[in-house]
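Title: Comparing notes on inverse folding

I've been comparing how different people in this forum approach sequence design from structure. To keep things fair, I'm posting one structure and asking everyone to reply with a full sequence. Here's the target:
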């Protein structure tokens, strides 16, 4: 199929892009990598009246260290650049680990880091990981800018708090505390496919080996990624153990509502989520003990 007719704009700077978005209002839609949006337009699931292409705005593509020890990533940075960045691998190896699961190398070379988050595809890895890592998102418009935490950014499938005149400009990742470990696991029907279920975890231990803080995200088992409250209730204040991991795997069942579709049944998704939760937490805590 082909998309419906639309107007096309190719600004050469952020200022020009924001001015164009302000003029277009609800008729405008930002085009970043286009690996998801163009497919949706071809199937006429998305019908923007105009596209504002950011691919001629090089100032939006960068990976810069922050003064606090984290990283600032421009919205137009390609996923493959994040995947192969030495700075990312050194400071946030979880991102390097996750990137390898995103589609295929050709898609990662074209798809953008910020575009994937702003698109808020519930089956995509990066929207869920943005919640897990509590990324800070800089939204800009011709009238100013504002910061939004990733858990507050996504409000539904393909829905965010980004206003029509705004664009996601930058994503900031804060450094992890000492004795923190991370892990991401998923099950898909084939390499590069969407996850039937996925679990990501970031855990921090205190000096006595007790869980001090935890963030667990569940993906592919609800209409949007879930930042689990049940997992934190079980983990924080306890020493990690197989029994604690199993308790988490059971507790999160109350938070998920998986669907049955061509990829998997709801029953299978529930079952595999139990296994993935235990596997993910086991490795995350092991990495925390080693200081990885």
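Reply #1:
Here's my take.
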């Amino acid at each position: 199929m082909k998309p419906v007719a639309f107007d096309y704009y190719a600004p050469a700077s952020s200022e020009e892009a924001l001015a164009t978005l302000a003029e277009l209002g609800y008729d405008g839609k930002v085009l970043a990598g286009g690996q998801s949006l163009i497919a949706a337009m071809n199937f006429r699931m998305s019908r923007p009246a105009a596209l504002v292409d950011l691919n001629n705005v090089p100032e939006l593509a960068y990976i810069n260290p922050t003064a606090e020890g984290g990283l600032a990533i421009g919205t137009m940075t390609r996923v493959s650049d994040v995947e192969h960045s030495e700075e990312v691998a050194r400071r946030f190896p979880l991102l390097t680990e996750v990137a390898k699961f995103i589609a295929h190398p050709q898609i990662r070379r074209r798809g953008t880091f910020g575009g994937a988050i702003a698109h808020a595809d519930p089956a995509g890895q990066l929207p869920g990981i943005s919640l897990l890592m509590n990324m800070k998102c800089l939204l800009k418009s011709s009238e100013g800018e504002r910061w939004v935490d990733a858990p507050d950014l996504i409000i539904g499938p393909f829905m965010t708090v980004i206003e029509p005149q705004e664009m996601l400009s930058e994503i900031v990742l804060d450094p992890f505390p000492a004795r923190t470990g991370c892990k991401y696991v998923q099950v898909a029907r084939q390499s590069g496919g969407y996850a039937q279920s996925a679990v990501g975890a970031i855990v921090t231990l205190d000096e006595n080996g007790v869980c001090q803080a935890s963030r667990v995200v569940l993906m592919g088992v609800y209409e949007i990624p879930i930042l689990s409250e049940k997992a934190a209730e079980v983990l924080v204040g306890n020493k990690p153990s197989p029994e604690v991991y199993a308790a988490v795997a059971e507790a999160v069942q109350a938070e998920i509502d998986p669907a049955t579709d061509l990829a998997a049944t709801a029953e299978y998704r529930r079952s595999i989520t139990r296994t993935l939760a235990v596997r993910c937490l086991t490795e995350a805590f092991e990495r925390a003990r080693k200081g990885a």
